[in-house]
Structure formats: C-alpha cells, structure tokens
Amino acid sequence: MVPLSYYLILGGILFACGVAGFLVKRNIITIFMSIELMLNGVNLTFVAFAAQWQSLSGQIFVFFVMVVAAAEAAVGLAIIIAVYRTRETLNVDHVNLLKL
Amino acid sequence: MLHLIVFLIFGAVCVAGAVNLVVQTHPINSALSLVVVMGSLAVEYLLLGAEFVAAVQVIVYAGAIMVLFVFVIMLLNAGEEEHTKGSHVAWLLGVPGLLIGGVLIAWVLISRSATRTVEIGALPGPPKIIGWLLFHDFLLPFEVTSILVLIAIMGAVVLAAKPVSAKKEI
Q1: Chain A residues within 8 A of B130 when measuring between CB atoms
Q2: What is the pLDDT of residues B98-145, one digit of tens each?
Q3: Cα separations in angstroms, B8 against B2, B13, B126
Q4: pTM of the prediction?
Q5: 3-class DSSP state for residue B117?
Q6: Which of A68, A56, A76 is nearest to B131 (CA)?
Q7: Which of A20-29, B34-43, B75-84, B121-130 has the highest mean pLDDT?
C-alpha cells in the first residue's frame, strides 16, 4: 500500500536530478545519461498513473518512450563519436562552434 | 506495510544512484550508477503491478542502452571531467530555488491530491494483454515506431561511419 503521491515525488526527484546533471555536467556522455534519467522519471509517473486509473495506456506509453529513448541513444552516441573524431574532446565547453 | 518498506528502500537506492550520477566526475561511475537507478526503478514498476514494463526496463534500459553507453565510454577512452568556471549566482539562486520548489510540489502532492493506495498486482498488466493492445488499439503508433527505429539505425550507422575521404587515404 503505497500512496500515489510518493511515486510522483520519486519521479520528480529523478527528473530534477536529471535536469541538474544536464545543467551542471560538462562531459557530453554524462549529459546524455542525465537525459535518460529524466526519461526514467517521467516513465515512473506514467506507470504510477496507469496503476491509479486502472488503465494500461500508460504502460503502452512507457513502451513507446523506451523505444524512442533507444533510438535517441543510438543516434546520440553516434553523434558523440562523430564529434570526438573531429574535435578530440568530450567537453561541451570546447564544442561551442559549428565551424571547425 | 511491506510494500511501503520495499518502496522506500528501493526509492532511496534510486535517489542515491541519481545523486551519485550527478556527483561523480568519471563517466563510467555515472553510467554504473544509472544502471543502479534503472534496476531499482524496475522493482518500483513491479510494485505497481507492471511486470511487462519492469522486464522491458531491465532488458532494454539496463541491458541494451547502458551497454551502448559503456561501450562508447570505453571506445572514446573518456577520462575525468574537466571543471570549468561556473557562475556563483547560479548556485546561490539555483539551490535554494530548487529546494523551495521541490518542497512546495511535494507538499501540494501529499496534502491536496486524493491519494489512493496502489496494491501489488492491482493492475492487469500481463504481457498478453499489453501485446493485444499493442497490435490492436496502438497498431499505427507501433508501426510508426518501427520505422523510427529503422531510421535511427541507419542514422547511427551513417553518423558513426568514417568519412569517405578518410577511407580513401587508408
């Protein structure tokens, strides 16, 4: 017996940690992991609301969010590899120009 | 009562992992703490009666996506994070603002919302029903996401492949 609000607060904490990591971290891979953390927090609220209203649509949405996250991770990490190949750095402060 | 204890334990592990992800300076430590977060989130999904989501969470997130992350970290030989100058105003305003906002939201959620309790297994979430829903009610989104994944695979291959000029030099 766990109140719904506890799940929402946990999801909010995870999302806030993701936002903080996104803003604070300087390594491009860690920033990417912070985005995944935010997606996880949202997923938890989806499942909690699905349980609250006895509706499976929330779980289907989580499935789609996971698929999009997988696609995003594949493309994003490929972009990181491409960036590293041209700039030899992972620090986002050194990747601030579109032109080489 | 037991559910609440399990929820609190794994919620604490979850939050600790999330905070550790932000605090650690080496990307591989952040990646491993993200695995911890995802694993404990899978337990939270089980508590909500979402077995399918919990299994997919472990297989896809903690398995596939994190392997991809660790692989890229190893491939690029990512080292310790360099610290750059941040503004002190951001810390002075951001941390209290975050705390005040968090406490306000938590207070509203706990006091105002009519929280019902969620029992374990209360939700009919076996994979059979979810599969039926995916292939009947959500067939079009399902097919669209399959195209999205196909495009993502092709995009990843194109982006990560070596440029054509570099190949000719070899």
Answers
A1: 56, 59-60, 63
A2: 889 888 888 887 777 665 666 655 566 678 888 888 888 889 999 999
A3: 10, 9, 25
A4: 0.87
A5: strand
A6: A56
A7: B34-43
Q: For each of the domains in chain B, give its residue range(s) and CATH number, in order of start.
A: 1-79 (1.20.120.1200)
Q: How many domains does chain A have?
A: 1
ipTM, 2 decimals? 0.91
* Chain B environment of A9 (Cβ under 8 Å): 105-106, 109-110
Q: Which two tokens stand for residue B156?
A: 């990843």
| The token pair that represents A23 in the structure block | 């803003």
Q: How far apart are CA A42 and CA A11, in angstroms?
A: 6
User: Is A100 a member of any domain?
Assistant: no
Q: Which of A59, A79, A80 sits opposite B50 (nearest CB)?
A: A59
**Which chain A residue shows the shortest CA-CA distance from B46?**
A47
Tell me the CATH number at A26.
1.10.287.3510
Contact B61 A10 (CB under 8 A): no
Report the amino acid identity of residue B74. M
Interchain proximity B78–A69, CB inside 8 Å: no
Rounded CA-CA distance A67/A49 in Å is 20
* Pairwise CB contact (< 8 Å): B148 & A4: no
Residue whose C-alpha is closest to residue B52's, from B148, B123, B139, B147: B123
Does A70 sit within 8 Å of B60, measured CB to CB? yes
A53 lies within 8 A of chain B by CB: no
Residue A15 Cα to chain centre, angstroms: 8
